[in-house]
Amino acid sequence: MHKSALLALACLCGLAAFAKDPRENRRFLKQIPNNDKIPHALNRLTYGPRPGDLERVRAMGLKKWIELELHPERISENPALMAKLKMLDTLAMSSAELVRDYPTPQMVRQMVAGQTPFPSDPDRRMLIEKLVAKAERQLGQGEQPAPAAVLRTGTPQQRLAAFQALPADQQDDAIAALPAGVRQALFQIAPPGLRRKLEMADGPQQVVARDLMEGKLLRAIYSERQLDEVLADFWFNHFNVFLDKGADHYLVTEYEREAIRPHVLGRFRDLLEATAKSPAMLFYLDNWQSVGPEPPERRGQGNRARRGLNENYGRELLELHTLGVGGGYTQKDVTEVARCFTGWTIDQPQRGGSFQFNPRLHDNGEKIVLGATIAAGGGIQDGETVLDILARHPSTAHFISTRLAQRFVADDPPAALVNRMAQTFLKTGGDLREVMRTMLASKEFWSVGAYRSKVKSPLEMVASAVRAVHGDVDFAFALANQVAQLGEPLYRKPEPTGYSDSSQEWINSAGLLARMNFALQLAHDKVPGVKVEVAKAATELGSPEFQKR
Amino acid sequence: MNRRIFLRNSAVAMAGVGAAPLWLERALYASDAPSPRKKILIAIFQRGAADGLNVVVPHGERAYYDLRPTIAVPRPAAGGRREDAAIDLDGFFGLHPSLAPLKPLFDQRRLAIVDAVGSPDPTRSHFDAQDYMESGTPGVKATNDGWMNRALAKPEGQVSPLRAVAVGPTLARSLAGRNPAIALQSIGTFQVRDAEAAKEFREMYLASKDPVMQAAGRETFEAMAMLQTVQKQPYSPAAGAQYPRGRLGESLRQIAQLIKADVGLEMAFADVGGWDHHVNELGQRASEGQLAVLLREYGQALAAFWQDMGDRMADVAVVTMSEFGRTARENGNRGTDHGHANCMFVMGGGVRGGRVYGRWPGLEKEQLYEGRDLALTTDFRDVLGELVSLHLGNPTLNSVFPGYNPKPLGLISGTSNSGKGTDSAY
After folding, report:
1. CB–CB of A483/A462 below 8 Å?
2. Domain total for chain A?
3. Which three-class secondary structure string do you get for A93-107?
4. Is residue B416 within 8 Å of residue B350, measured between CB atoms?
């Protein structure tokens, strides 16, 4: 199997090499001058150089720095970053805790009706009670309290001072009574603790989304483990889920933290399984509702219509996660794979539940997947076997290598490089760190064809701009909005394909205009929540060159 | 040097300094256009699955009232306040009362309605269904571009940078593709916020050796230059038309402004959200509640647009759509859940209005799709296909809707109703 896989790859390699323009091939072999190597490495393996990064890497030595980035566990994390992330407390919570402590309006109603417990934290409980009262007022029941007179007028600073002068037990009432516009204005100048309360008043479930986006930006800007962050973004995008699809709203935090981040430089099989068993993915691609046929002895009992097989996950697993379009699977394979994953479901998805294999939902018949027979009666092992088959399939090796090369080398990466990366993938049983090493040691990575050939995504543009000015970020919400304005609302790509890695997606009129205006805003130090420490001209941050990496 | 290119370049250069005379801009596109006036198509997407059965009310269908004991819209002659009952259209169908502003358009035969229409794909996922409808390829996820972009005919001569516009913060999926299209939040703010920096940016992008950057830069600055001249003229809707406050009104107002400024607009897209009424779809009366509020804005916006455009509507067609409809039966929360077939509105100068098109499948149990939804009898691509081929004059439907053969319903007359004679080229 191994030998024929390599043979198949060699054929692919030969064909592809013929198809490519020989001039193109030369560009990917010609090396960039030595002086350009560190800037290139910083552009590709980080979210952009900060003032002083060039010197730091030169002092350490480029090879040593790259090796260190490949071992993030050996890098001490930035304590300032850890402090900022601590404020975003939802990032460390489990899905169940999130649902309980940051509920949606329907859940609040359930709490009031006694169907679900209130949060344990007394501050949160109080805020939720205020929200309930407010909702009741909006429905015309209950009376409207006026905001405290001192808060009705004045500049944001005056209102803040007036607010802080209120006795503590009145402060929560005051927050709940403030109109949204006033809350927003206060937010920008309030100290972190008060900011949190203001956010909660806007709607607890928004806090979960905001923390995710802000956390991502803060990490991109401040983490010392830059390659780790770049890879976290890459792999989340590869295994994309959509934050705003129902229950996913509360499942993405744990997904990113537990299923994606720990595996980005590990074994692909582990990453694949972690996503396959994650409630976030099971819900997003509907697998949690996919069931096999009713066993004969259970039919006729009760009138409940039984939902059937849902092929959504089966299809995307093959098409987007592993083999890729044209990777050698048929529609029949999609159906058979879907059958294997019946029963892979979630225990209480709306309460932030966890993975559960439900044997009663599982289709226990025999399946044939990509030519391999999976005997009947396999239970949960069916799905595991499919993951095994996919994780060591040559098409997977090729597809994953292509995608990594697209992110790190060029929009249209040279076939020879992709093939060598795929060979490493197969030889090492899917060791992603080794695949990265093959890529980073290659002539193609350090070539003229690769150098400054990629367009920065909105996230990369915003993060690299803030890093370039050595920005001090107090809160990252305005930056997250900018990333959305530039066209990449974080965690909000509805399609499972995730955000594209190619120039075409990002460079259009609206996006370009938004980049120029953001450059202006940042250069004039006018981005809320950010303070510029090293001045840079707008014409640099908004230039065509700065949009490339 | 070709006189047209010279004029164009100098106009853009002058516009960059803010001094291009309006006549020059108009002259560019008037002389370059192959026919005196290009046809324009505007698509409006109601995101969230609008409840077609309560928008175009089948008041002649008994089952409708059985299925919706608390949220059906009352029959026209039901007694009680007229503003709470359906507005009769043809004895069987009626409009939700909040759509009163559209009744005159229907009576004047400018507004056509298609019912039991939509996407044949069974998905009830909002984003999948929206994706399928915007890509124009139901069931196929791999399509990268949108039907509107594919429907843009091969350009002849100079191409306006404002040929295809999506009003909103991001470029709508429908307009994504190989032809340049821009996302425009508002005409007034589509500019670099510092005139000095704008000049420097423009020079940098036009001089860039990267072809993608250069092309995108050129497109952006040309659009900005065009829009600067539009921005300079304060806009007053004609004929006393009053657009309602809110996103849709604002979007249509801007589209009207762009059309009347003769910037070469051919395709425009706007969307309006909030239709996902699982709970409390209507208030105590049909004229109250969430759907009524949305429809009030909706009807007023469309009617205002019609009034504002006046004669120019001869070249314009507006089509509305939503990703799927909602369940025929109300649920336990005075709302409805995700369904299947829906309705579409088509209005414009060349439209044969005053009729409800499509075969009505009925709402009896055995007539429902999967026992729960309005069944589909017309594919949405039939409606869009007819607009693309007969209104826009683009016959290449197999590339606009690959894998499907649209059948016209007879919505579009062969000539425009403007009375200007048969200027159609086919």
Report:
1. yes
2. 3
3. CCHHHHHHHCCCHHH
4. yes
What is the residue type of B418? S
Contact flag B216-A510 (C-beta cutoff 8 Å): no
Q: Do B197 and A242 touch (CB under 8 A)?
A: no
Average pLDDT along chain A = 88
A96: its two tokens = 């169940």
Residue A252 lies in a domain: yes
The answer to whether residues A380 and A231 belong to one domain is: yes
- Domains parsed from chain B with CATH numbers: 39-186+242-400 (3.40.720)
- Cα–Cα distance measured from residue B268 to residue B253, given in angstroms and rounded to the nearest whole number: 12
| Any domain includes A172 | yes
Region B242-250 average pLDDT: 94
Same-domain status, A368 and A515: no
Shared-domain flag, residues A183 and A283: no
The verdict on A196 and A241 lying in the same domain is: no
CB contact under 8 A, B169 and A512: no
Condensed to tens digits (0 to 9), the pLDDT of residues B158-216 reads 788 899 999 986 788 899 888 888 888 889 888 999 999 999 999 999 999 998 899 88
Say if residue B215 is exposed, middle or buried (CB neighbours under 10 Å; 0-12, 13-18, 19+).
middle
Q: Using pLDDT thresholds of 50, 70 and 90, give the confidence band for residue A411.
A: very high
Strand partners, B357: B114
Domain region containing A190: 85-208
A112 pLDDT exceeds 60?
yes
In a domain, A123, yes or no: yes
From chain B, the residues in CB contact with A499 under 8 A are none
pLDDT in tens, B216-226: 898 889 999 99
A164 and A230 fall within a common domain: no
Residues of B in contact with A503 (CB under 8 A): 212
Model-wide pTM > 0.90? no
**Which structure tokens are listed for A115?**
């169907």
Q: Are residues A264 and A195 in the same domain?
A: no
Give the chain A residue nearest B191 (alpha carbons).
Answer: A513
| Domain match, A197 and A233 both | no
- pLDDT at B27 (0 to 100): 40
DSSP 8-class letter at A548:
B
Least confident of A9-13, A151-155, B112-116: A9-13
Find the range with the poorest average confidence among A178-187, A519-528, B95-104, B340-349: A178-187
Amino acid at B148: M
Tens digits of residue pLDDT in A334-367: 999 999 999 999 998 888 889 999 999 999 999 9
With both helix axes pointing from N to C terminus, report the angle between A204-222 and A226-238 in degrees, rounded to the nearest 10. 130
Q: Spell out which residues of chain B touch residue A518, defining contact as CB-CB under 8 Å.
A: none
- Check B192 against A516: CB less than 8 A apart: yes
Domain end position, chosen among A208, A242, A262? A208
- What type of residue is A199? E
CB atoms within 10 A of CB A501: 20
Q: How far is B125 from chain A (nearest CA, A)?
A: 9
In this structure, the answer to whether residues A236 and A149 fall within a common structural domain is no
Q: Do the Cβ atoms of A241 and A255 come closer than 8 Å?
A: yes
Of the residues B159, B162, B201, the best mutation for testing chain A's interface (the one with the most A CB atoms within 10 Å of its CB) is B201
Cβ contact B328:B374 at 8 Å: yes
Residue A45 lies in a domain: no
Nearest CA in chain B to A523: B197
* Shortest alpha-carbon distance between residue B423 and chain A (Å): 34
Q: What is the dihedral of CA B117, B123, B128, B133, to 10 degrees?
A: -20
Q: pLDDT band at residue B229, thresholds of 50, 70 and 90?
A: confident
Q: How many residues are given for chain A? A: 549
Question: In angstroms, rounded to a whole number, what is the distance separating the alpha carbons of residues A375 and A382?
Answer: 8
Q: Are A120 and A372 in contact (CB under 8 A)?
A: no
* Residue in A with minimal Cα distance to B210: A544
Last residue of a domain, one of A364, A391, A418: A391
